[in-house]
Write a structure and sequence with these properties.
Length: 310
């Protein structure tokens, strides 16, 4: 009887969708996705290789950049199996537990990215507002503890999500709206009360994105106050220039999140393809842009790239 109930209320597989109505073009759609994955993975691996090879880059700023690159690789590799399976091989079904695992890792890496960006803003705050204590404040053991805290916080916050889904009877359908598994997408298929999922999901997002973004804004408010008190215009320009890469990384992460939230709230009449495109932008743009941003704006990274390819 238990096996019968399990198969009745939890489907063996979920059916993932790429771009509904464009199935005949999936092979062509696969080309830009493959290029995105190749560029993201190559860019982030290049950043890691440069920092590893150059002893002069073994500093807090570049250690945090390595964390960001590792995390972006995790985001790309979390979505890669199902996205390529759909667009390259026409395989749209994913096992129930595999979908739960993908959901957990995908949301975890997203939460970790927010925490890493907060840690990088703290790094810029200390470097500009208290430069004499920079080395003594951001020691290697302390940076390692910060990284471990980010991983633990995200993992603990996401740990209940798979269990919150497994307790729900999934009997409306087994068709998901994207080419990967997301918590909001999965819980909508339940034919039971999802209040607990909604409340905990809102709490997790507010506690992570809300707090992290607030502290990032506060960090930059204090950085701006310190920079404006510097007498020399050239020194002000140099101080702000060290923050440009991080500001661009923050915008590339939070702007798509805000856009997806606004579209979900006010764009219910928009075509489904718009929602799908915005969700893809939210997941694929930051891992692609971050290596480009730091390669363009950071002289040491540019020099490392030249050394590697020469």
């Amino acid at each position: 009887m238990e096996e019968l109930n399990l198969t009745r209320f939890q489907p063996a597989t979920f059916h993932l969708t790429g771009f509904p109505g464009l199935e005949q073009f999936h092979m062509w759609i696969a080309i830009p996705f493959c290029l995105l994955y190749a560029a993201s993975i190559a860019g982030n691996c290049t950043i890691l290789a440069i920092v590893r090879r150059d002893q002069r880059l073994h500093e807090p700023m570049y250690f945090f950049l390595c964390m960001l690159s590792f995390n972006d690789l995790g985001v790309s590799l979390s979505t890669l199996p199902t996205v390529l399976a759909i667009f390259c091989f026409g395989l749209s079904d994913v096992l129930f537990n595999a979908c739960l695992a993908q959901m957990f890792f995908l949301h975890s890496f997203s939460f970790m990215e927010s925490g890493i960006l907060l840690a990088m803003s703290f790094d810029r705050f200390v470097a500009i507002c208290n430069p004499l204590r920079y080395s003594s404040t951001l020691t290697n053991p302390r940076i390692a503890r910060i990284g471990l805290a980010i991983v633990l916080k995200s993992t603990v916050m996401l740990f209940p999500f798979p269990f919150l889904i497994k307790r729900l009877p999934i009997c409306k359908s087994n068709v998901l709206s994207h080419s990967y598994c997301l918590h909001p997408d999965m819980m909508r298929l339940a034919c039971a009360d999802i209040t607990v999922n909604n409340i905990y999901g809102f709490f997790a997002v507010l506690f992570t994105y809300g707090l992290d973004s607030t502290f990032i804004v506060l960090s930059y408010a204090m950085i701006l106050k310190t920079v404006l008190s510097i007498a020399s215009r050239e020194q002000r320009r140099k101080a702000l220039n060290t923050c440009v890469s991080h500001i661009c990384a923050v915008l590339s992460f939070y702007v798509p999140i805000i856009a997806v939230s606004v579209l979900h709230r006010f764009g219910k009449g928009a075509p489904p393809v718009v929602h799908i495109m915005m969700s893809n932008v939210y997941l694929f743009v930051p891992p692609l842009l971050n290596p480009i941003i730091y390669s363009v704006k950071t002289k040491e990274i540019r020099k490392g790239i030249v050394k590697i390819f020469s």
